[in-house]
User: Fold these one by one.
Assistant:
Number 1:
Amino acid sequence: MTTIQQGSKVTLHFTIKMKDGSVADSTHNMGKPAQLVIGDGSLSDNFEKHLIGMQANQSKAIELVAQDAFGMPNPDNVHHMDRSKFVGDAEVEVGTIMAFSGPDGAEIPGIITDIAGDSVTVDFNHPLTGQDVTFEVEILSIG
């Protein structure tokens, strides 16, 4: 029986639950499982340690504290932008999540946290940064 180890290509379903039990994200909602390679940097080392040794068709609930899940908020990820950069029909208001182009051209989400005159504060930290979460994982296959 194949078990997950360093370098394994894993196909899994996951559900991320907050402390209050609400669901923050789930591959079930997207209708397709996630794929990753253990050790490729897409998961924290601590999270990967929980997956190593699991087998296909196995499920597990993994509780992660903030720094092992999405990390702690990084003040360098908070930017002040000129309101004139926000054009078009997009509503500029606190709480709005917008997509911005990153330095590499990839889209990165940012949440508007403050508006003061012509200055708009945008937080590019992951929305779950600083949160303790539970990952419910269901391993579908291991390659």
Note: The chain has a mean pLDDT of 91.
Number 2:
Amino acid sequence: MRALVYDPDNGLRVAEVPMPEPGPGEVLVQVEACGICGSDRQLVRGEGAPFGTSYPVVLGHEIAGRVARLGEGVSGFAPGDAIVVHPFVPCGQCAACARGEEHLCPHQGVIGFTRPGGDAEYVAVPAQNVLRRPEGLDPAEAAILVDAYATPYRAMVSAGAAEEEAVLVLGTGGLGLAAVQIAKALGVPQVAVLSRREDAGALALVCGADEFVTLGDDPRQAGRRLRRMAKGGLGLALDTSGFADGVAFALDVLRPGGKLATVAMPAGDMPVSFAKLARKGAALVGSFGSRREDVEALLQMAAEGRIQPDVVAGRRLSLDEAPDAIQNPFFGRDIIVFDAP
């Protein structure tokens, strides 16, 4: 079968690889769609990979498809079932897993990094990572729910976004645009967006943003606009971009006692003013990955029309177009689409 393969010596390429077989406790998935994530791009740029990544690796961890075959001991699914795949495979035995924080498992595997991913016609995955997909939900839109949406959802739920009157989202990539929709779906009355790109404003507003500012705006005027919107300051800023100037701006507009949460993983160190954090009594919170129940909640939200992944879904590409797309990002989330089963 054909797959998108990467290794540091031979680069990124579409290649013929062996057809996977589902082992005990696994499901063979015929892939319908797989999103291209920023972490795929980071890997190809040599900016780091999850611990345990082995090369050559078939990329792709935002997977939607249909069950093709069941491995030994798997029940509850049948060939043809519409599904998505949660990409994180926790060990189930460590202290983090015992606390119910399996998304922070230090021993977890990641589909598309530590085991073959979904940028291929077929992929074998653990049955515990397979979730039913509402039949009416487009596979390309469903695929990006498992990470582009699930990552900011986990961060916002952990940071208590639903209790805030105003939230600022930093960044207008796939994660940032998804975060705007999620904040609104969680009931946040006012959501602002900060971007480096002036041309991202229209899409941010379509996603539900109430205010849009750029790093090119006068920071004092932009700050005053957001404080007026938030009646004195924002309770939560979610960083999806990892730019130091954006984080500095967010710290300025946070209200006393506010939170700065980040899901960004920039290649270099990020300078943060600890003096400003201390004076404001603000909290700095990191968030990684997601839980299976996060994806379940997002599938329900999408089925009910509370979030609109079609707005975040960017270009729909063939497998042959994927290498160029990984090196040349687009607004929203690029998605590899395969022929329907």
Note: The first strand starts at residue 2 and ends at 7.
Number 3:
Amino acid sequence: MGSVTKGFMQLTHYINKVVGWLLFIMLAVMSILIFWQVFARFVVGNSLTFSEEASRFLMIWLTLLGAGYAIKEGALISIDLLQSKLSGIPGKILQTVMSVIACSFYIILIVYGFSMAQAISFQVAPTTGISMFWPMLALPAGGALMLLNTIAALIENVGKGEEPA
């Protein structure tokens, strides 16, 4: 691997480490909010007004960033019947074609997700009062992470054949 690809892989590794911690923090905050919502509703008799909406927005971010993180870990569910039957050059060609198709989808997700987020940025969430731009920004952010990790996985896949035994 060249120095550029090594730098890219190190950057990807660092970004995934930061995203992993962000996912952990978001899941913890969401769990605390939901626990407190249930506790306040059934024990105290008066629930929080913002916790359901905040948890929903956190779930959106968790799902899209988590999908990007799962790509790097190889943890996304897939149908790999054909891929498991092919090995060597045909397997790498199939993996490359699948990665290019996925990257095309991620670019569409980034471009249209950002334009959609801008289009509804004037709307305000009812209980939290934040612009709907922020929850919708999860689409291009998740798409960018998925694109980054798919490219990194493709580099790793192609680079496996170049390593000396």
Note: The helical segments are 3-44, 51-73, 81-85, 88-119, 133-136, 138-159.
Number 4:
Amino acid sequence: MKSVKQLLHSNPSRLLVSVTPDATVIQALNTMNDHNIGSVVVMDDDKLIGIFTERDYIRNVVLKGLDPINTRIGDLPMGKVCYVTPEYTLDEVMALMTEKRIRHVPVLDHEQKVIAIVSIGDLVKSIIDEQTFEIEQLVRYITG
């Protein structure tokens, strides 16, 4: 099974998109929209503060009647951030996401610096690619 490190190396142009706690919700949403992503990490300098997702927007802003133009990301509840390291296997990441019911997880290096974020879509794509390759190899083997 592939590791997170291998997944990240297969897409070296991957951007880490972040916002500060002082960013407004609408700024975070615009950033996510500009990059066509479903979450951003919340960083205070190099320190990981939290993660803000589309789900957080619905639960913590819309359903509470908050104004996204004037509400700062840092004013929203930030729970404990689940994260992985590059050594995690994709199976381990998927198990963590399933257990915690999350769709995005930051990847931290050994110095606790955020180096990427992995989404459930990244995992599904990688698994499909791996299975497609294995099927092609089996077909070649069987058909000679």
Note: The domain at 4-143 is CATH 3.10.580.10 (CBS-domain).
